[in-house]
Structure formats: C-alpha cells, structure tokens
Write a structure and sequence with these properties.
433 residues, alpha+beta, 7-stranded antiparallel β-sheet, 10 helices, Galactose-bd-like_sf, 1,4-beta-D-glucan glucohydrolase, signal, SGNH_hydro
Length: 433
C-alpha cells in the first residue's frame, strides 16, 4: 500500500510539474536590461549581421554596400546599460533583433501584446518596422514612419501592439527564434528598452488588418517615398489638366508600380518610341501596392482623360512587402479594376500577369506571384477586361530569369522593356481599334 501510495504521489507530482512547465509566464522579457536568458542581440544590414558582444558593436563590412553603417550600443533608460541604442545610414535595410532558442508563442496570441519603450533621436530621413518572425521563411511586421518621425526629440514613449498584428491565419508560432526585431529604413538614430511579450496586455497602438490591407486605399507612406510620392501624384494631376486644356488626347495609360514607373524614369527614349504616338500617360509609382494604386485612382489620376486602353500590372510589392496571400492580393487587383471601370467606363483594360522575379522558378516570392497569376484570368470578360501573360518571354526554358533582362531580378532593363513591347503590341493593336 505504501509503495502504491508513493507511486501515486510521484505521478501527481510529475503531472503538476508538467502542468506548471506548460503554463506560459504572464510576461516574457525579451530584452529587459539584458536579453532573455540564452538569447542574443543581433544587428546589421540585409546581408551582414553580427552578434553584440560587450557594450558596443558596429557593422561596416558589407561588400555589397561598402558605405553601409549600423551601430548598436548599450545606453541608459531606467538604469545603467538597460537599453539599446541603434543608429544606421547608407543601408536600405538595417536591423537589431533578439534571437533565442525556439519559443512557443501560441499561448500569447489570443490576448497578448508585444510592448517596448522607444526614444527617437533622429528619423527625419528614416522609418521603422517592428517585426516578429513566425517560422522558416515567415515574418510579419508593422510599419511606423510618420508617427515615429513625429516623436523625434520627444523622449521615451511606451508602445504596445496586439500580437495579432503579427499573426496571420495559418502561421505557426510554436517555435519562434526571432521573437522581436526593430528594422530601420533610410537613416536614423533610436533607442529601445523593456521589450516584453505580455499574455494579457493592453494595446496602445493600432495596426492595419492584413485581411483588408490590399483593398484599403492608402498613400505610400514609406521613409523612402515621402519626398517624391505625393509630388508625383500632384504632377500627374497637373499634366492631365494641361492635356485637357490643350485638347491633347490620352489614348493609352499605364498603371502600376516601379516596373511601369521605370519606363519613364530610366527608359524615356523607349517610352517615347513605343508609346509616344498614343500620347501615353505613365501612372507607375515605385513601391506601390494595390492599395496605393486604389488611393491614386480615387484621387483624380484617371479623371479628365478618356483612353482607349488602360494597361495595368500591379501586385509584386504586395508579395515583396508582406508576402500577401494570393487570394488577398487577387482581391486588391480586382478592386483596382473595379475603380478603373468606375472612372473610365468606355476604356478597355489590359491586365498583365505579374512579371517573374528572382532567378529560379522555385523562389517563394515568384511562386506566390504565379499563384496570383493563375487567378487573374477570372477577372477578364473579353469585352472590357482582357488578360495577357507574357512571362515566358522573359524566361529561359528551365524558368530561369536572366540578369541580362532584369539586372536585379525584378526590374527590366532596356532589353526587358523591348520584350514587353514586342509581346504586348499585337494584343494592344487589337484593343486600340
């Protein structure tokens, strides 16, 4: 009897210990005075990252970006060395992050928050992203540009975001090794402290709903776009007004992102050669996603013109920026088409498949775009909306994309634009008549 009682007591003790071990702590201190036990602080740019050893660290050894500089150092908030200073310049992407053994964050998702204290010392030419990785090849982020710039010089602020801001349906948060990153764009100097995940926190900040982001009109408010994006919009409105006053017709309009923008920005002679006879209007904006196009369409960019054809290609930045689920990206493209039809009821729309990106066919971002392309024919009715996929013309038989056509494996050069014109022209000729 004693042996049985002892065994029962042992099993009860083990069960209680297991239950205790399985119960998540109410607060997970990722960096509070120091990194979570067993974790480390990493910093650098996209290609080169180092571990913070001691009180200071510097990354200035990226061969691809020899002028890039990222500095991280321990600084003070409530005590000596309890915060991290982070400054960067000449790097299109920079980061300081906590990296740990796999953490199961699932118990924190329902009502949890990630909170931290932030001090913005200099951000006039920069912006911030707060990021949590959700597994291999999976990351979610919230952008902070305009509010962060407004906080410059105003001391420490406490920010708290719902963990749901960083979680999409289907994401696996069971083994997170990068539970928080502060990413910088442009250039800047900030300090961060008291990074915590709370099981029952109270958010102080809002975030976009990823399920509707692609169809919610918005200007492109990125650190690298603020200086030129809205001025370009105003210039296009002025150009439309000028054409209307002069009685100059716009027979063709191109709508899209940097791939369209670069016709005009870097390949103007080809633009004039191919499309000048149509008095074509270029409404491509570098970095645009479907929601940015929607905002522009709703704010006058196709009012006052009556083109025969509108050529649209959009979506690769939805993939590149937030790896948007194909059905959500498709919804954004569909919404843009509906808006074009609202403003230009007699214009035929030529919808192009999203061009290939990355060298290999099995690249995750190219595959995501191809899943979207497979959905796009449903938007074509053969009367007002027409779909054209010319992607094979850019690729080798094995699906490889050459830098001779797209040097950065995303944007066409002159040869790439010649392929675009050659492959699209027969369809365009039919629609123009």
């Amino acid at each position: 009897m004693k042996l049985r009682h002892s065994a029962t007591l042992l099993l009860s003790t083990l069960a209680a210990a297991a239950a205790t071990a399985a119960t998540p702590a109410p607060t997970l201190p990722l960096y509070v005075g120091q990194a979570l036990p067993g974790a480390s602080v990493k910093f650098g740019d996209f290609d080169v990252q180092h571990t913070l050893e001691g009180d200071t660290g510097r990354m200035n050894d990226d061969a691809k970006q020899p002028n890039a500089l990222v500095d991280v150092h321990r600084t003070n908030k409530d005590g000596t060395g309890d915060a991290l200073g982070f400054s960067w310049k000449n790097a299109w992407f920079s980061t300081v992050r906590v990296e740990s053994a796999p953490l199961d964050l699932r118990p924190y998702l329902a009502k949890g928050t990630v909170s931290f204290d932030l001090k913005v010392n200099e951000l006039a030419k920069g912006g911030l992203n707060y990021r949590i990785d959700c597994g291999q090849g999976c990351e979610r982020k919230v952008t902070d540009v305009i509010p962060a710039r407004a906080a410059q010089g105003k001391g420490w602020r406490h920010l708290s975001y719902a963990l749901s801001c960083f979680h999409h349906q289907g994401d696996d948060f069971s083994a997170v090794t990068k539970p928080f990153a502060l990413d910088g764009t442009g250039e800047g100097d900030v300090e961060i402290a008291n990074i915590r995940i709370e099981q029952n926190g109270k958010p102080t900040e809002t975030c976009p709903d990823y399920r509707t982001a692609s169809v919610t009109p918005s200007p492109l408010n990125e650190s690298w776009s603020l200086d030129w994006w809205m001025p370009r919009h105003e210039e296009k409105l002025a150009e439309i007004a000028r054409r209307k006053a002069a009685g100059e017709p716009t027979e063709l309009v191109f709508i899209g992102d940097s791939i369209t923008h670069n016709w005009e920005q870097h390949n103007k002679p080809l633009w004039d050669e191919f499309w000048g006879k149509y008095h074509a209007l270029n409404l491509g904006y570098g970095g645009d996603r479907t929601e940015n196009v929607l905002w522009r369409l709703q704010h006058g960019e196709i009012d006052g013109i009556a083109p025969k054809v509108a050529v649209m290609m959009i979506g690769t930045n939805n993939t590149g920026f937030r790896m948007e689920e194909p059905k959500l990206l498709y919804a954004g493209i569909k919404r843009d088409i509906q808006e074009i039809q609202k403003h230009l009821p007699r214009t035929k729309i030529l919808l192009l498949a999203i061009f290939p990106r990355a060298e290999k066919a099995d690249d995750a971002q190219r595959m995501n775009n191809e899943k979207v392309n497979a959905l796009l024919p449903k938007l074509a009715d053969g009367k007002r909306v027409f779909f054209l996929n010319i992607n094979k013309a850019f690729l080798a038989p094995d699906g490889t994309l050459s830098k001779d056509i797209m040097p950065d494996l995303l944007h066409p050069n002159g040869e790439g634009y010649k392929i675009w014109q050659r492959e699209m022209q027969p369809t365009l000729d039919k629609l123009m008549h």
